[in-house]
Design goal:
The complex is a heterodimer of chains A (about 140) and B (about 220). Chain A has about 140 residues and is of the alpha/beta class. Chain A has a single domain, classed as STAS domain (Transcription Regulator spoIIAA), CATH 3.30.750.24. Chain A has four helices and six strands, in the order βββαβαβααβ. A six-stranded mixed sheet of chain A has the order 1-2-3-4-5-6. In chain A, strand 1 and strand 2 form a beta hairpin. Chain B is about 35% helix and about 25% strand. Chain B has a domain of about 140 residues: Heat Shock Protein 90. In chain B, about 35% of the residues are buried. Chain B starts with 16 loop residues before the first strand and ends in a 5-residue tail after the last strand. In chain B, the strands form two sheets. In chain B, strands 4-5-6-8-7 form a five-stranded antiparallel sheet. Chain B has a three-stranded antiparallel sheet with strand order 1-2-3, with no helix packed on it. In chain B, a hairpin with a 2-residue loop joins strand 7 and strand 8. The chains are: A alpha/beta (about 140), B alpha+beta (about 220).
Chain lengths: ~140, ~220
């Protein structure tokens, strides 16, 4: 398993959010963890987005896993940057996408499908969900 | 938030915060107030009074918070308040209710901070949760034009409207410019099923978000 890149948000001097992008046996694994509560997450994650655009087309990956199960909170300021990361994954890596999310989280059950753009038939056809219980 | 610092020096900044919490489960009340100069917390030892035997949903919890002047805010106040009410409400209610309290407080306080019209003015936050409902009110100074803008958004979200579809459409339409206005309110309705209401009186805008709990906890 190789870490390809990662992004981090600092808030009040503490690291509060991580997005880790890994390659694992031909799969792209993107893991979100922590909380997105800052007013401008692009200030911290624009570098990650640029790297994703550079790295992913060359990585030769065949499927993706996007894991939100450790993302505890995302305010509405974080919606666009999450959409950008998701869209980059779908656009730069072909093949099926497994989205892992929390079973009992309103944001992950109600709003995340909107951010994934599941209304788009091609996106929906590539996407499956795995609902997990919060520990 | 529920444990104000009783040793705050008299020279503390001219910001004021008051927090009160009460539980009707035992017939006792606890209030804590801190102006930076004095604090009296009745919450100490509450862990001993409220055990796991308390039936979930039978407790009444109320919090009121005031802060002025708004221009003194330098840290992430929405985070502080959101995470505090998450912990407080989750002590007595299922995590799903605590999460809703977290979301609504975070989004409404964030809205106030992003639209301050007078840095000398005050923010008030009131949260109440009991067997019937989770109700949050946020009150701040606003212009008539700001109120009309907020009212238009709230009106658009009430009635027979598909809030989820509205959120999806708005996100796509504004994404290229990353315009945020109104996303937080849409999210409260489409994702969290809050009922919103807004009023305006004496230059104060009151935003109320209510989530009915009767029968669900």
């Amino acid at each position: 398993m190789n870490i390809l890149t990662y992004g981090e948000i600092m808030d009040g001097g503490a690291s509060v959010f991580h997005c880790v992008v890994r390659e694992d046996g031909g799969s792209l694994v993107v893991t979100f963890s922590g909380v997105v509560r800052v007013d401008n997450p692009y200030r911290y994650l624009s570098g990650l987005l640029e790297q994703l655009h550079e790295i992913l087309p060359k990585a030769g990956l065949e499927r993706s896993v996007i894991d939100f199960s450790e993302l505890e909170f995302c305010n509405s300021n974080g919606f666009y940057v999450i959409m950008d990361i998701i869209e980059t994954v779908y656009g730069k890596v072909s093949g099926p996408v497994l989205v892992r999310r929390l079973e009992e989280d309103d944001w992950q059950q109600e709003t995340l499908p909107i951010l994934l753009n599941l209304d788009e038939a091609t996106v929906a056809a590539r996407t499956t969900f795995e609902d997990v219980r919060e520990i | 938030m529920t444990e104000p610092n009783p040793s705050a020096p008299p020279s503390a900044p001219p910001a004021a915060a008051n927090v009160g919490a009460n539980s009707g489960a035992t017939g006792r009340e606890a209030n804590a107030g801190a102006t930076g100069r004095e604090a009296n917390s009745g919450l100490t030892g509450r862990e001993d009074r409220f055990g796991p035997e308390v039936e979930s949903g039978s407790t009444r919890v109320g919090v009121s918070f005031q802060l002025a002047p708004l221009g003194d805010i330098s840290g992430n106040l929405p985070r502080l308040l959101g995470e505090s009410v998450l912990e407080l409400v989750s002590m007595f209610y299922p995590p799903s209710v605590g999460k809703k309290a977290n979301v609504v407080v975070t989004e409404l306080v964030q809205n106030v901070i992003e639209n301050v019209v007078d840095p000398a003015s005050e923010l008030r936050l009131e949260l109440r949760v009991d067997h019937d409902a989770l109700i949050v009110r946020v009150i701040n100074k606003a212009t008539p034009e700001q109120f009309e803008g907020v009212k238009a958004r709230v009106d658009a979200l009430t009635g027979n409207v598909d809030a989820k579809k509205m959120l999806a459409t708005t996100l796509r339409a504004r994404r290229s410019d990353r315009l945020k206005g109104g996303l937080g309110l849409m999210r409260l309705v489409s994702e969290n099923r809050f009922r919103l209401a807004v009023t305006y009186e004496h230059e104060l805008l009151t935003m109320q978000a209510a989530f009915p709990l009767r029968g669900s906890v």
